[in-house]
Design goal:
The complex is a heterodimer. Helices cover 73% and strands 2% of the residues of chain A. Chain A is mostly helical. Chain A has one domain: ABC transporter involved in vitamin B12 uptake, BtuC. A two-stranded antiparallel ribbon of chain A has the order 1-4. In chain A, strands 2-3 form a two-stranded antiparallel sheet. In chain A, α2 runs antiparallel to α10. The mean pLDDT of chain A is 89. Chain B is an alpha/beta fold. Chain B has 7 helices and 10 strands. In chain B, the strands form 2 sheets. In chain B, strands 6-7-8-3-9-10 form a 6-stranded mixed β-sheet, with helices on both faces. A 4-stranded antiparallel β-sheet of chain B has the order 2-1-4-5, covered by helices on one side. The chains are: A mainly alpha, B alpha/beta.
Chain lengths: 328, 241
C-alpha cells in the first residue's frame, strides 16, 4: 500500500470512527457507552505514547506513571484538599510536567536502551509506590468518592455527558498530535527517531527534542489519568499495574505507530476484546501478548503504520517455503 | 599570520582503549580542498566526526574563523559554519525531500533562517534533479539522488566548511560524476571542503592538501597528491620514499 492510499484509508477510517462516536449514544447500550468512554481515555494515553514512540522514536514505559500522577493527583487534591476537579486536573498535569522534566533531563541525554530500561523500572515502581504510600494513597484500598467534573457550572455526572467530555478531550489530544506531527518539531522528531547523529548534524538539539516529546506526552497522559479517575470516581494501584502499560503499547502496535487514527482503533479493540473473550478470562493476557508477538512478526507497522517494514516473518516465511519446495 | 578558516591543532580521539585517531593538525581556507584518503578503518570517519562534534576529543582543539569550537556539541557546531554530510548519506525515511531541506535549514544562523525559501531554491539550482521530487518520501530516492539531497541539506546550514564522508560510496559512475560536478562548483564559490574518500577523486582545487591516514595516523600530509604507486605503498604500510 503506498503512502497516498494509506492516507486515504486512514482518513476514511477516521471519518467512520467519528460517525460511530456521534451515533453511538443514540443506539448503544449503557455498557457500550461506558466502554467507549474508557476507550476515549485510553486512546488519549495511546496518543501520548504515539508522540514519544511513534514520532520521536523513543521507547518509554512511563505513560502509566504519568497517568498515576494525574489519577492520584486529582483524587487527593479533590477529596483531601477540596480542590475543584478542573483545577485538580491542571495542578496534576503541572506536577506530571515537572516530573517528566526531572526524570527526562538526565535520561534523555543518553542514547540507546537506557530510557526503556529506566522507565520500565519506573512503571514497576509506580504500582509498588502507590500501594506502599498508604498515608497519601490509602494503599491497596485506593481512594473512592472522587467527585465528578463540573464544566461552566454544569456537573458532568451522567454517562452521556462524560462520554461527550472524554471524546472531546481525546479529539483535542489527537489534534495536538496532528499539529505536532506536521510542525517543525515533528520533522525534527522523525529525524531523531531515524538517527540521532544525523539529526545533530542538521543542527537539531537532540536532547531537547526528546525532552519536549517526553514532557508533552506526560501532560496528555496525566490529563487522561485524571479524567479516568473522575469518571469512575475511584483510584487504586491496579489501574497502574505493569500490565496496563504493556496494554497501551499493544493498543499502539495494533493501531500503528505514527498514525493519527491508530490509537483509537487500538484502544477500542483492547477495550472491547475482553467482552468477547469472557470465556477465556484467565488466558486473556496470553491472548493479548500472543497477538502482540504475531503483530511484530507479521505486521509490525500496525493498521495504519507509516513504516513500510513488512515484518520478519513475512520476509522469511516465503523464503523458507520456497526452499522446502512448498511454494515458488 | 591571518587566522585560518578552519584549524585543528593536534586533535586525537580514543574509543575505550583504542586510539582511533592519533594527534593530527590541519588547516583549511576558503575554496580549499583537504582530501583525506586511507583504507577502511584508518580513522577517516573518526576525523570527520571529531571535526563535526559527533565524538569527543581526547586532546587538541578546533577553531573555526578564529573561534574555538571544540567544546560545542554537534548541533551547535553546525551553526558556527561547519556542516557534515555523513557517511551513508543519512537517509531519513518518512520525510519528504522538502522536509529534509527544511530540516537542513535548522543549522543556519537565526538571521539566515528568514531567507529559507531563497536558500532552498539556491540549493535546488545546484541539484535540479531534486526539484521534481520535492514532495516525495526521501526513501524513494536513488543513491545518487540521496547523496545530492544530503549535500543540499548540509548546504542549507550555510556552512563555510563542508565535511563530506565518502560521498561516492556505492554510487554509479554517472551519479559520482554529477556529485563531483556540484562539488567543483561549490569550491569555485569559495566553500572550504574536507573530503574523505577511499580512492583518488576527480576534483581539483587551487589550494589543496592531501592527508593519508593509516591505523589512525597521518602517514602523508602534503600539498601535492601521492601518485598511484605511492598511495599503494602508503595503504600497505611500506615507508614512503
Amino acid at each position: 500500500m503506498d503512502a497516498t492510499a494509506r492516507l486515504r484509508l486512514e482518513r476514511a477510517v477516521l471519518a467512520a470512527v467519528a460517525a460511530g462516536i456521534v451515533l453511538a449514544p443514540f443506539v448503544g447500550t449503557r455498557l457500550i457507552i461506558y466502554n467507549l468512554t474508557i476507550t476515549a481515555l485510553y486512546a488519549m494515553v495511546v496518543v501520548s505514547l504515539n508522540i514519544i514512540l511513534g514520532l520521536a522514536g523513543q521507547v518509554s514505559f512511563a505513560q502509566t506513571t504519568f497517568m498515576a500522577i494525574g489519577g492520584y493527583g486529582s483524587a487527593i487534591l479533590t477529596t483531601e484538599l477540596g480542590f475543584d476537579p478542573v483545577l485538580a486536573i491542571i495542578v496534576s498535569a503541572a506536577l506530571a510536567l515537572v516530573a517528566a522534566l526531572v526524570i527526562g533531563a538526565p535520561l534523555l541525554r543518553l542514547r540507546g536502551h537506557y530510557l526503556a530500561m529506566a522507565t520500565f523500572a519506573l512503571a514497576l515502581g509506580t504500582n509498588s509506590f502507590v500501594t506502599a504510600a498508604t498515608p497519601l494513597t490509602n494503599g491497596s484500598i485506593g481512594i473512592s468518592g472522587v467527585p465528578p467534573l463540573a464544566v461552566a457550572g454544569h456537573a458532568v455526572d451522567t454517562a452521556f455527558s462524560y462520554y461527550v467530555l472524554s471524546w472531546t478531550a481525546c479529539a483535542v489530544a489527537m489534534a495536538i498530535f496532528a499539529l505536532l506531527a506536521r510542525s517543525h518539531i515533528g520533522r525534527a522528531w522523525r529525524a531523531v527517531a531515524t538517527g540521532q547523529e544525523i539529526a545533530a548534524s542538521l543542527g537539531i538539539d537532540v536532547t531537547r527534542a526528546k525532552l519536549m516529546a517526553f514532557a508533552i506526552a506526560a501532560v496528555i497522559a496525566s490529563v487522561a489519568g485524571s479524567l479516568y479517575v473522575e469518571f469512575t470516581s475511584f483510584v487504586g494501584p491496579d489501574l497502574y499495574d505493569i500490565g496496563i502499560v504493556l496494554n497501551v503499547f499493544l493498543m499502539l502496535f495494533i493501531g500503528g505507530r505514527g498514525s493519527l487514527a491508530g490509537p483509537v482503533v487500538g484502544a477500542a479493540v483492547l477495550t472491547f476484546a475482553p467482552q468477547f473473550l469472557a470465556g477465556l478470562q484467565q488466558y486473556q493476557n496470553l491472548v493479548f501478548f500472543g497477538v502482540l508477538l504475531i503483530l511484530i512478526l507479521v505486521w509490525p507497522s500496525g493498521f495504519f503504520g507509516r513504516s513500510r517494514d513488512s515484518g520478519p516473518l513475512r520476509e522469511i516465511l516465503p523464503l523458507w517455503l520456497r526452499r522446502r519446495g512448498v511454494a515458488r | 599570520m591571518p587566522e585560518a578558516l578552519l584549524r585543528a591543532e593536534r586533535i586525537s580521539v580514543r574509543y575505550g582503549r583504542v586510539d582511533a585517531l592519533h594527534p593530527l593538525s590541519l588547516a583549511a581556507e576558503p575554496a580549499s580542498l583537504t582530501l583525506v584518503l586511507g583504507p577502511n578503518g584508518a580513522g577517516k570517519t573518526t576525523l570527520m566526526k571529531a571535526l563535526a562534534g559527533a565524538v569527543e576529543l581526547r586532546s587538541g582543539a578546533i577553531w573555526l574563523r578564529g573561534r574555538e569550537i571544540s567544546a560545542l556539541p554537534a548541533h551547535r557546531r553546525v551553526r558556527t559554519g561547519i556542516a557534515l554530510v555523513p557517511e551513508g548519506r543519512g537517509r531519513l525515511p518518512g520525510l519528504t525531500v522538502l522536509d529534509n531541506l527544511v530540516l537542513g535549514h535548522n543549522g543556519a544562523s537565526r538571521e539566515r533562517r528568514r531567507a529559507r525559501d531563497g536558500d532552498i531554491d539556491e540549493a535546488l539550482a545546484l541539484f535540479p534533479a531534486l526539484k521534481p521530487r520535492l514532495n516525495q518520501d526521501c526513501s524513494t530516492l536513488s543513491g545518487g539522488e540521496m547523496q545530492m539531497l544530503a549535500i543540499a541539506r548540509a548546504l542549507l546550514a550555510k556552512p563555510h566548511i563542508l565535511l563530506l564522508d565518502e560521498p561516492s560510496l556505492g554510487l554509479a559512475p554517472l551519479a559520482i560524476a554529477r556529485v563531483y560536478e556540484a562539488l567543483a562548483k561549490l569550491l569555485d564559490q569559495g566553500l572550504g571542503m574536507v573530503l574523505v574518500e577511499q580512492k583518488a577523486v576527480p576534483l581539483r582545487a587551487a589550494r589543496e592538501t592531501t592527508i593519508v591516514l593509516r591505523n589512525g595516523r597521518a602517514v602523508f600530509q602534503e600539498a601535492r597528491r601521492p601518485d598511484v604507486d605511492e598511495l599503494a605503498q602508503l595503504y600497505l604500510g611500506a615507508r614512503a620514499a
